[in-house]
Amino acid sequence: MEERDWIMLTKIGEGKNISQVSEELFITQPALTYRINKIENEFGTKLFIRGNKGLKPNHQGEYVIQYAEKMLKELQNTREEVLSMSSLVKGKIYIGASNAIAQYILPNLLSKFLKLFPEVEPHVLTGFSPYLTDLLINEKIHVAFLREDLEWLHFKQFLTKETIYLVSHEQVEIENLPMLPRINYKTNQSLKSLIDVWWSKSFQKPPNITMEVDNGDVCLEIVRAGLGYAFLTELGLSKEKSLWRAPLTNHLGEPLQRETWLYGSKESENYYTVKAFLNFIQEEGVFRM
């Protein structure tokens, strides 16, 4: 088998159908089917169950997919080691980031980094912390920007704190919040817990949640339309100038804040390109709020 076969197998292992894999790998579906049949002939057994919903690996297929994932990782490690030996800032770097970091921080950050190191090829994956942490543990990404403090045995660096705000189309009184419509959005459990604890210490009544949406941007638009209030972080409000806001504070009057940390996989610090990226972030200081 070749590298492209390993990539193909891992994508099928992710649950993607023939059409999706064909589009991502820029090969025709007949050519893809031919490669699958050829691999099965090499192993002398069927690896996939064909059905109306596409391919599904059987027991043997799952084992071969694990082999493909291992071979791709070994190849990636070998390439990175070779580049590290020559001290070249070159090659792929896999970055995980929360949606807000990817939207408000990474574009400008990567643009500046690539002007210094144009031969680097960044790959960015976004999602919530559990998903990104799993990628990091399994070394499918080199670094991850996570908006929470986790126990971690490898590279870990504090980046910044950001205040959590009560946001509304017009000024509201804190004591009236249980009676007012609240807009919720999907976010990390750590932020949800932080706000839930604050609420339980501030009110005897549950919140009047009238809408729950997928992300902070949609939530912001609904608040802008005057349909309710929301709790949003400083980063999500970085480009918002018109809405009324007030920082949430604890019983001591201190602002309620959310932390952002940078994490590195077990082997990330051994690669020259990743080290250059980590050094760049420290020198750039883009996370100072």
What can you tell me about this protein's structure?
With 289 residues, the chain is of the alpha/beta class. The protein has three domains: 79 residues, Arc Repressor Mutant, subunit A; 98 residues, Periplasmic binding protein-like II (D-Maltodextrin-Binding Protein, domain 2, 3-Layer(aba) Sandwich), CATH 3.40.190.10; 98 residues, D-Maltodextrin-Binding Protein, domain 2 (3-Layer(aba) Sandwich), CATH 3.40.190.290. The protein is built from ten helices and eleven strands. Strands 3, 4, 5, 6, 9, 10 and 11 form a seven-stranded mixed sheet that branches. It has a two-stranded antiparallel ribbon with strand order 1-2. The chain starts with a helix and ends in a 5-residue tail after the last helix. The model has no long low-confidence stretch (mean pLDDT 88).
Topology (elements, then pairings):
Elements: H1 3-13, H2 18-25, H3 29-43, E1 48-51, E2 54-57, H4 59-85, E3 91-97, H5 99-104, H6 106-116, E4 120-126, H7 129-137, E5 143-146, E6 156-168, E7 181-185, H8 189-202, E8 208-213, H9 216-224, E9 230-233, E10 244-247, E11 257-264, H10 272-284
Parallel strand pairs: 3-4, 3-5, 7-8
Antiparallel strand pairs: 1-2, 5-11, 6-9, 6-10, 6-11
Helix pairs in contact: 1-4
